[in-house]
């Protein structure tokens, strides 16, 4: 296994995720029970669930699941899909399939840590930072300037984790053309796609824009089903897809058979699930707006364009790291401080924290948070 640094987010979560009273930094939308999901199954999938044999499954993924995934795309077919045990396995294996020591990658920051550290363990990497002073804008000229003759991958994530930024569709298409013109693979993390506050801003999927592009997605985030551990990459480059399969032989080999059927049910019902999750986010936003309005001397708040996380600025003199530590220790309210998203490639804002807005009933956590802040004044 390639030597990698500690995964800061997971290390932090191993201490607090299941012990903090209020998980106010969750990155996934509201989940559902097994009964709720099974109630969405059609007759064929319910029969498949009831008669499931718990043997090995196909490395590429269940054919019916791959077909359900392919139907989310305009140009991809089921053969263009390979499934993984979550998005992280897909990201990890894709970088190993695409990059070697003589190659180069460009990564947008801030981002999920593995998007930076996995390629960094394989080759030189250049970071291009979203600009927090311009609504987290992406400078495409800066991306072009970062590209070298050896660049093999440009890695992006929209809606972005942790900022919630969604760039313009025209800019995303320009980015895909830029990569195609240079023979570069665009690796697009699309795990929050479907949770845009304004659905008209939903970006096309990279795999529909380019035969070389890779679209990464998962049941965990927008659908709120992380317990299934089913992710996938869609890519119309069949030779690359074959390399991903051979890489998977060294990790999970195949996916969980029960999870594949449950994922199939969820994807067929995805419009209903996404409608529900967007409604939860929209219903939560007034509570967050009211909270941050009361404490506008301490925070700069902006709702995300998409996804279910936001990245407000903390303006207190004690600094965001101490602030988040004392908050969780004294009240049990869990946030993620800026150090979790620190980049070694670009300058990173040191005054931000991630807050989750996709779970039902955030009021108890916000009330505990507000009570603590009022006592400190």
UniProtKB/TrEMBL annotation:
<keyword id="KW-0808">Transferase</keyword>
<dbReference type="InterPro" id="IPR015421">
    <property type="entry name" value="PyrdxlP-dep_Trfase_major"/>
</dbReference>
<dbReference type="InterPro" id="IPR004839">
    <property type="entry name" value="Aminotransferase_I/II_large"/>
</dbReference>
<feature type="domain" description="Aminotransferase class I/classII large">
    <location>
        <begin position="54"/>
        <end position="357"/>
    </location>
</feature>
<protein>
    <submittedName>
        <fullName>Aminotransferase class I/II-fold pyridoxal phosphate-dependent enzyme</fullName>
    </submittedName>
</protein>
<dbReference type="Pfam" id="PF00155">
    <property type="entry name" value="Aminotran_1_2"/>
</dbReference>
<dbReference type="InterPro" id="IPR015422">
    <property type="entry name" value="PyrdxlP-dep_Trfase_small"/>
</dbReference>
<keyword id="KW-0032">Aminotransferase</keyword>
<dbReference type="GO" id="GO:0008483">
    <property type="term" value="F:transaminase activity"/>
</dbReference>
<dbReference type="InterPro" id="IPR015424">
    <property type="entry name" value="PyrdxlP-dep_Trfase"/>
</dbReference>
């Amino acid at each position: 296994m390639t030597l990698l640094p500690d995964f800061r987010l997971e290390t932090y979560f191993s201490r607090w995720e299941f012990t903090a009273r209020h998980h106010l930094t969750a990155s996934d939308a509201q989940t559902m029970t097994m009964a709720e999901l099974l109630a969405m199954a059609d007759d064929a999938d319910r029969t498949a669930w009831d008669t499931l044999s718990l043997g090995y499954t196909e490395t590429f993924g269940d054919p019916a699941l791959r077909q359900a995934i392919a139907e989310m795309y305009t140009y991809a077919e089921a053969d263009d899909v390979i499934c993984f045990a979550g998005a992280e396995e897909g990201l990890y294996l894709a970088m190993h399939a695409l990059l070697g020591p003589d190659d180069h990658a460009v990564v947008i920051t801030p981002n999920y840590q593995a998007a930076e550290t996995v390629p960094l363990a394989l080759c030189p990497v250049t970071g291009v930072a979203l600009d927090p002073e311009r609504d987290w804008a992406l400078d495409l000229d800066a991306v072009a300037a970062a590209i070298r003759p050896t660049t093999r991958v440009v890695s992006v994530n929209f809606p972005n984790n942790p900022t919630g930024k969604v760039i313009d569709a025209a800019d995303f298409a320009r980015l895909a053309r830029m990569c195609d013109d240079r023979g570069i693979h665009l690796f697009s993390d699309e795990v929050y796609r479907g949770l845009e506050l304004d659905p008209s801003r939903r970006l096309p999927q990279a795999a529909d824009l380019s035969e070389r592009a890779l679209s990464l997605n998962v049941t965990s985030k927008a659908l709120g089903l992380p317990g299934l551990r089913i992710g996938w990459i869609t890519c119309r480059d069949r030779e690359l897809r074959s390399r991903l399969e051979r890489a998977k032989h060294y990790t999970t080999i195949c996916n969980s058979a029960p999870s594949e059927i449950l994922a199939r049910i969820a994807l067929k019902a995805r419009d209903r699930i996404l409608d529900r999750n967007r409604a939860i986010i929209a219903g939560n936003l007034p509570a967050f707006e009211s909270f941050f309005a009361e404490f506008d001397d301490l925070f700069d708040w902006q709702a995300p364009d998409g996804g279910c996380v936001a990245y407000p600025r903390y303006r207190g003199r004690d600094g965001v790291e101490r602030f988040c530590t004392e908050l969780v220790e004294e009240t049990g309210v869990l946030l993620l401080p800026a150090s979790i998203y620190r980049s070694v490639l670009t300058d990173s804002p040191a005054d931000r924290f991630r807050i989750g807005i996709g779970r039902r009933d955030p009021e108890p956590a916000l009330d505990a948070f507000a009570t603590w802040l009022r006592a400190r004044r």
